Amino acid sequence: MLLSGKHFLFLTLAWLSALSMAEFQCGRLDEKLLYTEKENAEPSEHPWVGILLEDHGDRHENTRCSVVIINERHVLSTATCVKPFSNRSGDTKAVAMLGVWDETDAPEEELSCNDKGFCVPGPELYKVVEIKVHPQRDRDTGDNDLAILRLEKPVEWTNWIQPICLEGTAEPDTLTNRNLHYTGFNHGGAEKGKGLVMTVSSQKCKRLTSSSVLVPVNQLCGYPVKRTKFYPGAPLMDIDVRDEKPHNFYLVAILVRNVDEGQATTQVYQNVRRARSWIMDNSK
């Protein structure tokens, strides 16, 4: 039986996916993709970021929030992002769309192709059956803006759906003055994006965001190279270096909001490192 070009490509992608999973590791990175000024991520780059949807029965609404895969049954987002989902267990109406490259693609599409004919498997949907908000979330200051979402079924790992690492083997004491990576979806285009941000001191953060915007103790500010506004929940990542080589990405924070002040856009992140014990205890 002759195969169409798309079906042949799909089989090739499935084979490559199976091959890559034989060498599976969390936070997978390709070193050559680090040294580029591209603002769009490759389809297989940062495979732990997805989009939070709201189930309306006959359709799924994009909440403009990202989720981050931390293991086969849990994703991480902000508490603010899950606020519309009042039912915290069972049928939450929340859905995680994973393996997504172009946010306009529908899950029922077998392949997702760009205008140049490059195709990857379409995204997959996972129902959220439980939502846990950080117990020390402060509604007044916005601190500890974190939520763990439990999925109805285990995630099926592919080359385009994998978790991020939660820890590095040797981490710096401070996140100030660090050149870090972030990824996710944004208001600048439909495809998965990426960028670099320089984290700044709390004093500089106060000046960048103006004195009217207070940054809580467990949050930090980043000054991005580009002003593109990414969705809340976007992961901020550092790189674990082993034997003098970049080994994998690990999660240090997630985006909670963007602040425009004058000619600058500042990204405000929730520090995940200080919440790791809570995340690990509640995502077993």
TrEMBL record:
Pfam families: Trypsin. It comes from the Eukaryota. Keywords: Disulfide bond, Signal. Residues 2-284 form the Peptidase S1 domain. SUPFAM superfamilies: Trypsin-like serine proteases (SSF50494). One of its GO terms (biological process) is proteolysis. InterPro entries: Peptidase_S1_PA, Peptidase_S1_PA_chymotrypsin, Ser/Thr_Proteases_Immune/Dev, Trypsin_dom. GO terms for molecular function: serine-type endopeptidase activity. It comes from Drosophila erecta. The lineage of its organism: Eukaryota, Metazoa, Ecdysozoa, Arthropoda, Hexapoda. This is GG15191. PANTHER family: TRYPTASE-RELATED.
